[in-house]
From TrEMBL:
The keyword Transmembrane helix applies. This is AsmA-like C-terminal region. InterPro entries: AsmA-related. PANTHER family: DUF748 DOMAIN-CONTAINING PROTEIN (PTHR30441). GO terms for biological process: regulation of protein targeting to membrane. Keywords: Membrane, Transmembrane, Transmembrane helix. The chain crosses the membrane at residues 24-46. It comes from Flavobacterium phragmitis. One of its GO terms (cellular component) is plasma membrane. The keyword NAD does not apply.
């Protein structure tokens, strides 16, 4: 290696090398001298022929325009663009003949460089090879009447070129630096505004056709196809190379670019523009992989303001196709297609995960209705996602009319209903287990981009659902539901419900469900058919409880949120009217057990009305009408009941003897028939509050007996020591009572027994204040039962000695004394 370096050093120091190096240096100096002499000669030539050159430049320009071309100053740029002759025009203005009307200057440039072919110039011809425009404003204007300041350029005259005719002057290269370009189309309400930092273009000509590869770096101030709606890609930088060609016969410009940078994203674009006087059609097709928000922010404000309410986490594959006419007012046709795979979709109402679908936006949903927001639509195809962990599939959904958006489609779901807990208000519903399937056609309005009043038709099938309805403290187990939504009604095909000891099977119908659910739930009538193998009334009363009042807490002003559907459901449940046709094999109320129960129930605002009810209990039957309504921690009830041949001991035992302390159900037997019209209160556990009852009660006991009843036994020992007062049978036991809370007015109580007959009237109290008058004939009535008629028994009833006694309250104990009540 060292030997090679020594050889090179030796060669460079040799005399032959020095000799040739000297000659080469003189050659280079000679070329520089010739170049300087040539440039100097050109400068001298320019100065000597300045007037003629400028005249020819003006002639070349003015012969092709209808307007004014003005240059403030010009000069020759020494050595610039050599071997071409570079002429610099300063403070250039180009105006059409109508400038005084519209005031839009077509061109205003600080400097324009025109590079002229030297040999053509020496032959007294102007051949411009390159134009450089620096620090300029190009303003292309079209008025509402169709006039444009580009009319300054005269149309070319078509003629056959002759052999002797010299070719037309062409410009082979155009460069722009710091040029503001404005295309202001008032006829079509379009505005294109660009700050061009750099544009470089070399043009190849083929007769009147040409093509170029153009580099452009510009800021997009406005790309508005409709100035009412705003600009596409506003305030974005655009940079890239374009392949552009022009066909004279079609008067059409074709543009193609790949990896064009707009903002931080890259795009593949193909486009064409017709520039004929009667043909201004254009089409732009854009393809890219881009984030949702980045793509949305490239669209016009009327679109992006809506799309920015949504988001996709990962980039999406997008194709945008824009077609229109530059001379036609309004929006062009816009079709955007996006392919989404395994993404996360955020909407104002929630989040979709594992989301895949094909999305299409069009502003020409129905071709006959034009290109506008009311005719715009977003179409989703093959949508699959999880919404709050609930898997959903939608074959196709359409959101049309972006001024008043309406969404329609078909949704399918198959999931464990415990996943609903993430969607519901936890203070209303909580699901533990169960499974749901749904196949529903949906339609809903979108108000301020939030889902509003969704409407569904189709079927929902729920199996083995266990849940808590917290406002009523209801725990339901193994519930099955089959629902069918139609335009006319909601059909409840099957609900199987289990709550504690209650087992309920329900089917029913709600007419006009879709219209009333949101707008007038108080007018909604739910028709239920309920069959209960077993039901506990006290447990069922919890359904009637008013929901606990929520404390009102002042809230800060926050962004509007969609109303949770469970809140709406709660409102409907509380306001609607439910008419229930009830059939029960077994009903229990405390110790009372009833069978073969039938009734019509109406639930209205937490009030339960019972109509045409019948049941069998205690060996007899009861017909009843009534109402139950919550009041604080208690229930207000009213009842009109007809009791027929009920075992009186069992009946009294079922109602805790109605709070009577003076005897118990073991003291009495017989069959009770009564007619009661009573109001009163029940406790929160469903027990009667006896001293709250008011109303009338008429009763009669057949085959009755009074066993070991202490008050009678006391009287018997005092007045009838030889009669069996421990086992008294009755041929007549009837009465008419007026209930007044704690006290009972005994208007007439007639007793015809095997020991004696007596009549009672006065006041009986469940607490203090008893004051009863007893009329007791002393004759032995044991054989009265053998008398054939009631008249005969009445005729002998008060023969003989008659005692008048008073049973009264003495410090809480019943005392007996002689006397009549009216003499007390």
């Amino acid at each position: 290696m060292q030997q090679i370096l020594l050889q090179i050093k030796s060669f460079l120091q040799s005399e032959p090398f020095k000799k040739y190096a000297k000659r080469f240096g003189f050659f280079i100096l000679g070329l520089i001298a010739i170049l300087l002499l040539a440039c100097g000669a050109l400068s001298i030539y320019f100065n000597q022929n300045k007037t003629e050159i400028i005249a020819k430049v003006n002639h070349k320009i003015n012969e092709n325009i209808n307007g004014q071309f003005h240059i403030t100053d010009f000069h020759y740029k020494f050595l610039t663009g050599f071997p071409n002759f570079t002429l610099a025009l300063n403070e250039v203005e180009l105006k059409d003949n109508q400038w005084n009307v519209h005031k839009h200057t077509l061109l205003k440039a600080k400097e324009i460089e025109a590079r002229l072919n030297i040999w053509s110039l020496l032959s007294h011809e102007i051949n411009i090879h390159k134009i450089l425009i620096n620090d300029a404003v190009i303003n292309i204007y079209k008025a509402e009447n169709g006039y444009s300041n580009t009319n300054i350029f005269k149309p070319k005259k078509k003629k056959r070129p002759s052999k002797s005719e010299k070719p037309e002057t062409t410009i082979d290269e155009v460069n722009l630096n710091n040029v503001h370009v404005i295309i202001d189309n008032h006829l079509g309400h379009k505005l294109f505004d660009f700050d061009v930092a750099s544009l470089k273009s070399k043009v190849d000509y083929d007769d009147d056709n040409w093509q170029t590869n153009l580099f452009l770096k510009t800021k997009i101030n406005s790309l508005a196809f409709n100035t009412v709606h705003g600009s596409f890609a506003k305030e974005k930088w655009l940079e890239g190379n374009f392949d552009i060609s022009y066909a004279e016969d079609k008067q059409k410009i074709d543009i193609k670019t790949q990896q064009l940078k707009i903002g931080d994203d890259r795009f593949d674009i193909t486009a064409f523009f017709n520039i004929g006087k009667n043909n201004s059609l254009f089409r732009i097709n854009i393809g890219t992989d881009i984030l949702w928000r980045s793509a949305s922010n490239l669209l016009s404000a009327n679109i992006s303001s809506k799309l920015n309410q949504f988001d996709l986490k990962k980039p999406i594959k997008v194709n945008c196709d824009i077609k229109g006419d530059l001379n036609v007012e309004g929006d062009p046709k816009i079709v955007v297609q996006a392919d989404i795979r395994n993404n996360e979709l955020t909407i104002p109402d929630g989040l979709f995960t594992n989301c895949s679908f094909k999305g299409i936006f069009t502003n020409n949903f129905k071709p006959e209705n034009g290109f506008n927001d009311p005719n715009s639509a977003i179409i989703l195809k093959n949508f699959k996602a999880e919404y709050e962990t609930i898997p959903l599939t939608i074959a196709q959904a359409v959101i049309n009319n972006l001024e008043k958006p309406i969404a329609t489609g078909i949704v399918n779901a198959d999931f464990d209903i415990s996943k609903l807990n993430g969607m519901t208000n936890e203070k209303i519903l909580h699901f533990e287990s169960g499974h749901a399937k749904a196949n529903l056609n949906f339609q809903f309005d979108i108000v301020d981009l939030y889902i509003n009043k969704p409407r569904f038709t189709g079927d929902v099938d729920i199996t083995d659902a266990t849940f808590d309805y917290l406002p009523k403290s209801i725990h339901a187990e193994k519930t099955a539901v089959q629902l069918s939504f139609t335009e006319q009604a909601l059909y409840i095909k099957k609900i199987a419900y289990k709550h504690k000891k209650n087992i309920i099977h329900i089917d029913g119908k709600i007419d006009n469900f879709l219209n009333l659910y949101y707008d007038a739930p108080e007018k909604m009538v739910v028709n239920w058919n309920i069959y209960c193998p077993n039901i506990d009334v006290k447990q069922f009363l919890g359904v009637l409880k008013n929901s606990p009042a929520q404390k009102t807490v002042p809230k800060k002003t926050v962004k509007k949120q969609n109303i949770n559907f469970t809140n709406q459901l709660k409102s409907v449940i509380e306001k609607c009217t439910a008419i229930i046709n009830l059939k029960a094999d077994k009903i229990t109320y405390g110790s009372l057990t009833a069978t073969n129960t039938q009734a019509t129930l109406q639930m209205l605002n937490s009030k339960l009305l019972l109509k045409n009810g019948t049941l069998q209990t205690s060996g007899g039957n009861i017909a009843f009408n009534g109402a139950i309504q919550p009041s604080g921690n208690q229930y207000v009830f009213s009842s009109n009941a007809q009791v027929n041949q009920v075992d009186i001991a069992s009946f009294l035992r079922s109602f805790h003897n109605f709070g009577i302390q003076s005897f118990s159900p073991k003291n009495i037997r017989g069959r009770l028939t009564s007619n009661a019209n009573v109001t009163g209160l029940m406790s929160s556990k469903g027990d009667l509050i006896v001293n709250s009852m008011k109303g009338n009660l008429d009763f009669k006991v057949n085959q009755g007996a009074l066993l070991n009843f202490e008050p009678i036994m006391k009287i018997g020992k005092f007045a009838f020591p030889l009669r069996d007062v421990e086992n008294i049978t009755f041929s007549d036991l009837s009465g008419s009572l007026n209930l007044r809370g704690e006290q009972v007015d005994v208007n007439k109580l007639t007793i015809s027994s095997s020991v004696l007959n007596f009549d009672i009237d006065g006041i009986y109290s469940f607490g203090r204040g008893t004051n009863l008058a007893l009329t007791i004939p002393l004759r032995n009535s044991k054989n009265d039962v053998n008398l054939a008629t009631k008249a005969e028994r009445k005729a002998v009833r008060e023969r003989g000695i008659v005692l008048h006694l008073i049973a009264y309250d003495n410090e809480g104990k019943i005392k007996i004394k002689f006397g009549k009540k009216d003499k007390e």
